[in-house]
Amino acid sequence: MNNHFNPWHDVSRGDQNPAIVQAIIEIPKGSKGKYELDKDSGLLKLDRVLFSAVHYPAAYGFIPQTYCDDHDPLDILVLCSVDVPHMCIIEAKVIGVMQMVDQDEEDDKIIAVAAHDVSVNHYNDISALPPHMLLEMRRFFEDYKALENKQVVVERFMGREDAYNIIDASIKLYQETFQDKRSQPAPLQLK
């Protein structure tokens, strides 16, 4: 590990997790660019421009200090009424999870709402979202790699309790994988 600031390791996941987490946004809603955190440098890189004529249906990023079987931090989609820029930290209230398989690998996407946005923070569970929002998310993830000849299957949407369990498991895996290797100061926490 390098001794420089890295958003994945040096920003707190939030002290109210798994119900409210800090999310770091890599991709603003409406983007056709697939941006992602460069794990070594901590900078944001353009992975690719989406091949398909689709755009991200919500702000997309990750929950810091989490780790999944795909060797990445846990993904999160945050619904918000304003555009959230790249690398913005946003407090997100977890309302559910979209379980999908991306090229034969499980790839869960936590679904959340911006905790401090009154236009969406009244949603407490994914079942309360307008059905079209879920259809849009499903359609985007099933289509966004189609022209690259890669298959993504959205298996199901599940509620917040299932999402909490997935977050807890990703925290545990992060601690098992990284905690012993890091002797850094306390992570950055929003006040």
From TrEMBL:
Keyword annotations: Cytoplasm, Hydrolase, Magnesium, Metal-binding
UniProt xrefs under Gene3D superfamilies: Inorganic pyrophosphatase (3.90.80.10)
Primary localization class, coarse: cytoplasm
Top-rank taxon: Bacteria
Binding site for Mg(2+) 2: 75
Binding site for Mg(2+) 1: 70, 75, 107
InterPro entries: Pyrophosphatase (IPR008162), Pyrophosphatase_sf (IPR036649)
Name under which the protein is recorded: Inorganic pyrophosphatase
Reactions performed catalytically: diphosphate + H2O = 2 phosphate + H(+)
Compartment(s) where it occurs, according to its Swiss-Prot or TrEMBL record: Cytoplasm
Role this protein plays: Catalyzes the hydrolysis of inorganic pyrophosphate (PPi) forming two phosphate ions.
Pfam family for this entry, one: Pyrophosphatase
Gene symbol of the encoding locus: ppa
SUPFAM superfamilies reported in the protein's UniProt record: Inorganic pyrophosphatase (SSF50324)
Cofactors named for this entry: Mg(2+)
Subunit structure: Homohexamer.
Enzyme Commission code(s) on record: 3.6.1.1
Chain sites annotated for binding substrate: 34, 48, 60, 144
The family this protein is said to belong to: Belongs to the PPase family.
